[in-house]
Design a protein that fits this description.
Layout lengths: L2 H10 L15 E7 L6 H20 L8 E7 L4 H13 L5 E3 L4 H14 L3 E3 L14 E3 L4 H14 L4 E6 L3 H13 L6 E7 L8 H8 L6 E4 L4 H11 L6 E3 L6 H7 L7 E4 L14 H16 L4 H20 L4 H9 L2 E4 L4 E3 L14 E6 L2 E4 L2
Parallel strand pairs: 1-2, 1-3, 3-4, 4-5, 6-7, 6-8, 8-9
Antiparallel strand pairs: 10-13, 11-12, 13-14
Helix pairs in contact: 2-11, 3-4, 5-6, 8-9, 11-12
């Protein structure tokens, strides 16, 4: 039986509506701290809309365990200091039962000491591998890691005969973590990094760094970053007449990147969640129905879907189903049930968590995609 159908069946069959006295108990409070405004709003905006959409849907169906869901949200604007302040508020003042967030690696890493100290489950929507490695008792995540992205990119480079590449990355937490993974993993994959350039995520021109890269013997360019900067890098590459293959990370896994980069995006490759190519999946793929259902609901309400909203979908349902299995909101029991998540069909892949793995995805959960005629196309 399909995971979501099974879940809704559990809800409707578990005495959610008690003799007409629905929502009599205290609400289940789901806290979240997301980057809804500011330079990284493309992350937090679809995440928040997704959470709101499904809280509304589940409440209309009767809530969970006879209790209404309440979403408590704060906007960090991408500031790690704000993330810490808001997480403290979620725990101490709002008394949330579980936290789904933050949007970025920097925000999440800043908040981790607070949730670990308080003993509140946190499911992050950010990409940095250090969020879950080493494993932290109360912390989980749903997006693929930057390490996985690097490995997937290296596999594709080698298939194309590329042995030397130039790296360019931003100054955010995700960018720095990705850069670290690339530099550490490249040698073991038989690849040489011949240039290592960086930029500020608020910079509007990267031609100086790319001119240096052009002077090397690089066979490809890999940009690790998110926000507007990767689109600027992509445009600058083409403006300088550089014809090398360009790779991006999963940090740009939305149609917004293609729109910002314009024609320069043509041919760009990156590892992405299957959500961006849902229609291209085989009918036998267990993710296809989940992806198409989420995509249809989101687009009917809010327009173009992105992988970032998909991460919120995964985090939300992993949390809610753990609460359902735990039979309540006791933090330790919910934490244990999140860790026991097996076979959860989400937008990022099929999750199999364990005490040793608080993400539960393999490299194969990524689809290697290329921009062709303004759209994502699966190439592997």
């Amino acid at each position: 039986m399909h995971m979501r159908k099974r879940f809704f069946g559990l809800i409707l069959g578990a005495g959610v509506l008690a003799a007409g006295s629905s929502f009599a108990a205290d609400p289940i409070r789901i806290g979240t701290f997301l980057t809804v405004t500011g330079p990284a709003s493309f992350l937090g905006d679809p995440e928040l809309r997704t959470l709101q959409m499904y809280v509304e849907e589940l409440n209309a169906r009767g809530g969970v365990l006879g209790r209404k869901l309440e979403l408590v949200h704060y906007d960090t604007v991408g500031q790690a200091k704000e993330a810490v302040t808001f997480v403290k508020r979620l725990i101490q003042n709002d008394k949330v039962d579980v936290i789904v967030g933050g949007s970025s690696t920097g925000d999440t890493m800043a908040a981790i000491p607070e949730v670990e100290k308080a003993g509140i489950p946190l499911i992050s929507l950010a990409g940095g591998v250090e969020i879950v490695e080493p494993v932290k008792k109360w912390v989980f995540k749903t997006p693929h890691t930057d390490r996985m992205a690097a490995i997937r990119i290296f596999e594709d480079m080698k298939k194309r005969g590329i042995r030397k590449f130039a790296l360019i990355s931003g100054d955010g937490g995700y960018d720095k973590s990705g850069r670290k993974q690339v530099l550490e993993l490249a040698p073991s994959h038989g690849l040489e990094v011949v240039a290592d350039e960086s930029y500020g995520n608020k910079d509007t021109d990267m031609t100086t760094q790319l001119t240096k890269i052009r002077a090397t013997d690089a066979q490809a360019i890999l940009n690790f970053g998110f926000g507007a900067a990767p689109a600027i890098v992509t445009r600058n590459v083409r403006q300088l007449g550089i014809t090398l293959p360009v790779y991006q990370s999963h940090g740009v896994g939305s149609k917004k990147f293609i729109e910002m980069a314009g024609e320069a995006a043509e041919g760009v490759r990156l590892p992405a969640a299957a959500l961006v190519v849902a229609e291209q999946l085989a009918d036998s793929d267990p993710q296809k129905k989940v992806l198409l259902d989420y995509k249809a609901k989101f687009q009917a309400k809010h327009g173009e879907v992105s992988t970032f909203g998909g991460h919120a979908y995964d985090g939300f349902f992993i949390a809610v189903e753990a609460i359902q299995r735990a039979g309540g909101t006791d933090p330790a029991r919910v934490r244990d049930e999140i860790e026991k998540t097996r076979g959860f069909v989400g937008t990022a892949g099929v999750f199999h968590m364990s005490p040793q793995d608080h993400m539960g995805l393999s490299v194969d959960a990524f689809k290697m995609v290329e921009v062709r005629k303004g759209n994502w196309v699966i190439i592997d």
